[in-house]
């Protein structure tokens, strides 16, 4: 190597190292941004929609329970089948009926839940007069039954 040429041949290597370092930093920032986008722009709205759907499903089940109570005979039984959505936001969910929200013995609720997301809807009109209980999932046909002799 000649004394006056030191550094001129290294210019290409320095540019390549600079390009690799900057590209690596940008890739790390891009990965972090992708993780944040999934959480904030996809899961947040899906959870909001799921909560609204849980409230609608709970109101529908509550209405069907009250309707069954309204036509229940003094002696005999009534049974009806109904369908609720199989999945909400692409995932399964559970429906529980009874005293599921609090310590009040007269409170009857329909609780629709999945994981930590939960929606409690009061069964209006029959809370203290008739005990309701049971559970189901969204899949298949669901049944509401009344028997004057009890279950």
Key structural traits:
40% helix, 1 helix, two-stranded antiparallel ribbon, rod-shaped, 6 strands, alpha+beta, four-stranded antiparallel β-sheet, 151 residues
Largest sheet: 4 strands, antiparallel
Structural class: alpha+beta
Q: Give the C-alpha Rg.
A: 30 Å
- Helix content range: 25-40%
**Average pLDDT reading:** 83
Shape descriptor reads rod-shaped
Number of strands: 6
Unreliable spans are: none
**N- and C-termini, Cα separation:** 98 Å
How many domains? The number is 1
Number of helices: 1
Q: For the largest sheet, list the strands in their spatial order.
A: 4-3-2-5
Strand content: 15-25%
How are helices and strands ordered from N to C? HEEEEEE
What's the arrangement of secondary structure elements?
Elements: H1 11-70, E1 77-83, E2 94-98, E3 109-114, E4 117-122, E5 134-137, E6 141-147
Antiparallel strand pairs: 1-6, 2-3, 2-5, 3-4
What does this entry look like structurally?
The protein has one helix spanning 11-70, and strands at 77-83, 94-98, 109-114, 117-122, 134-137, 141-147. The chain has one domain (11-147). It is an alpha+beta fold and 151 residues long. It is rod-shaped, with a radius of gyration of 30 Å. The termini are far apart. The strands form 2 sheets. It has a 4-stranded antiparallel sheet with strand order 4-3-2-5. A two-stranded antiparallel ribbon has the order 1-6.
Short description:
With 151 residues, the chain is α+β, with helices and mostly antiparallel strands. Helices cover 40% and strands 23% of the residues. The protein has one helix spanning 11-70, and strands at residues 77-83, 94-98, 109-114, 117-122, 134-137, 141-147.
């Amino acid at each position: 190597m000649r004394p006056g040429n030191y550094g001129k041949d290294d210019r290409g290597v320095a540019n390549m190292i600079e390009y690799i370092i900057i590209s690596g930093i940008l890739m790390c920032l891009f990965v972090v941004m992708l993780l944040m986008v999934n959480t904030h722009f996809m899961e947040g709205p899906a959870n909001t929609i799921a909560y609204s759907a849980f409230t609608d499903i709970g109101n529908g089940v509550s209405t069907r329970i009250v309707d069954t109570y309204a036509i229940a005979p003094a002696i005999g039984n009534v049974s009806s089948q109904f369908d609720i959505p199989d999945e909400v936001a692409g995932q399964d969910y559970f429906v529980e009926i009874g005293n599921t929200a609090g310590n009040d013995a007269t409170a009857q609720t329909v609780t629709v839940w999945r994981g930590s997301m939960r929606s409690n809807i009061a069964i209006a009109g029959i809370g203290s007069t008739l005990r309701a209980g049971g559970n189901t999932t969204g899949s298949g046909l669901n049944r509401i039954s009344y028997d004057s002799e009890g279950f």
